[in-house]
Amino acid sequence: MNTTLSPLLANDPQPSLLLAPDARPLAFNSAFQTLFGENTQALPTNTAALVKACLRQRRAIVEVEAEVGERILLWTFIPDDNGQQVVARCRDASDERREAREASRARRLYRLITENTTDLISRHSPDGRFLDATPAAFRLLGLWPEQLRGSAVHTLLHPSERRQVLLQAGAALEVEGYHTLTCRVRHADGRYRWFEIACRAIRETYTGTVVEIVAVSRDITLRIEAQETLAHSARVATLGELASGIAHEINQPLAAVLNYSNASLRYLHNLDHDPQARERIAQGLQRINAQANHAAQVIRRLRAFLRKGPRHLQALDIADVVGEALRLCAWEAGQAQVRIEQRLGPQLPKVYADRVLLEQVLLNLLRNAIDANREQHGTQASRILLIAKAMDDGLLVEVCDQGPGVAVERLDEIFTPFTTTKADGLGLGLSMSRSIVEGFGGSLQARPGEAGGLVLCCRLPANNG
Fold first, then answer.
1. What pLDDT, in 10s, does the model give residues 62-107?
2. Residue 110 forms part of a structural domain
3. Nearest-angstrom CA–CA distance, 34 and 43
4. Which of 121, 179, 275, 316 lies 20 to 30 Å (CA to CA) from residue 149?
5. pLDDT category of residue 1 using cuts at 50, 70 and 90
6. Are residues 170 and 139 in the same domain?
7. Do residue 257 and residue 209 come from a single domain?
8. Contacts for 15 with CB less than 8 Å, ≥ 6 apart
9. What is the pTM of this model?
10. Residue whose C-alpha is closest to residue 446's, from 403, 378, 398
């Protein structure tokens, strides 16, 4: 074998060898011998065909891959001017090719996920326009990704929620970089569907500026409807449990109406003999009217509480909602010798929620506290403290009882469905309350009271509309 190499080939830092037209090795440079000795197994398996093609076409053939153990080599075959020999050079491309393969696998996986996921994955510019969306857009919104690109997100949101949703999401993404919201989104057919949307801000590495927002959206209409049906059933059951107190509240004005009407009839019989009878009859009729209106108001409140229909998110004064919840449980608290003390802070912001559902949550928290006090104190007098105070991003309502409390390690368990310590309870009240509050964009948690008992902490978003 002729082992004489040209200075150019001998000094080549890359493994190289000289091949005859039949692919026999003629010479090796030192870099090749250092790595492989004179073993030609490092060459591609089709080297003979490559050499022939290289000489016949009189051009170089590049980037031919060959695997040697864990190495990935890329070979280049270069013909000489006379068409009698071929120089074969290789370089180690193991890291490069493995990274390329990993990237290719990642792209295939990403494409597999995005094209087959039932959730809508979308990219948005900081000003809220669609940059891209997965094919699930058509199934969920009736719009193809091409139709969404460049359109503004706010055009799909329900008009009554649009401002609140955008302000709340924008503030959370700017500070925390992540936000999950529940809102109504318009389908191409004009109907609005409930969506749960998880958003994450993508920031520029050095400045921290938000350059893009990635969102994952899921249609939860069926879940919301099931939740509302369950909540309605729970309200019906609650009113059944409060029937005695409700009957008492209605009986009071009815009894007053009966008394005033009997008195008015007596004065009517003495109208000719008693000069003050006419005035007293008028007073009686006014009082009958006032008591009848009071009874009608009680019935209207009950009908509103029993309302079944889609949730209506709006700006609410927490004092009004607290007052309605207190009226519904006042008789039950009185029977248990429980005094409910309110501490509502000044200038409380309006909250963004559904009135009936929020009233139901507060009633659940208050009744839970009444049960805890009754368990701890029996028929002895006790107190529940209801606190409402403004927070940076909304409102905090705390219901503090004087019950036996809950161990720290079990605080999360009390929100698990069907977990209860009551003999006749289903264990759905707190679980359902948490789901309702989270649907408003808030949270419901528990902590031990400083002097014992349990504190239920309900955070509600402020209305920014």
1. 999 998 888 889 999 999 888 889 999 999 999 888 898 899 898 8
2. no
3. 15
4. 179
5. very low
6. yes
7. no
8. 29, 31, 32, 34, 35, 36, 42, 89, 90
9. 0.62
10. 398
Bridging pattern class, strands 338-344 and 382-391: parallel
Provide the residue range defining the domain that includes 57: 7-93
CA gap 203, 216 in Å, rounded: 17
Q: What is the CA radius of gyration of the chain?
A: 39
Q: How many CB atoms lie within 10 A of CB 201?
A: 22
- Give the range among 9-13, 22-26, 239-243 with minimum mean pLDDT: 239-243
Both tokens assigned to 91:
């370089």
* Residue whose token pair is 């719009």: 143
Contacts of 10 (CB under 8 A, 6+ apart): 29, 30
- Judge whether 145 and 133 are in contact, CB under 8 Å: yes
- For 292: left if phi > 0, alpha if psi spans -120 to 50, otherwise beta; the answer is alpha
CB within 8 Å of 369: residues ≥ 6 apart:
338, 384, 399, 400, 401, 403, 454, 456
The DSSP element (H or E) to which 422 belongs, if any, is none
Whether residue 340 lies inside any domain: the answer is yes
On whether residue 105 sits in a domain, the answer given is: no
Residue 437 to residues 40, 93, 211, 219, Cα–Cα distance (Å): 72, 56, 31, 19
Query: If you search the block for the tokens 């022939």, which residue do you land on?
Result: 52
Cβ-contact 47, 34 below 8 angstroms? no
198 phi, psi to nearest 5 deg: -105, 125
Q: Which two tokens stand for residue 412?
A: 């999360």
Can you read off the two tokens belonging to residue 237? 């059951």
If asked whether residues 326 and 434 sit together in one domain, one would say yes
Return left, alpha or beta for 160; rule: phi > 0 is left, psi -120 to 50 is alpha, else beta.
alpha
| Cβ atoms of residues 25 and 17 within 8 Å | yes
Residue 158 has pLDDT above 90, yes or no: yes
Write the DSSP string, 291-320: HHHHHHHHHHHHHHHT--SS--EEEE-HHH
Is residue 303 scored above 90 in pLDDT?
Answer: no
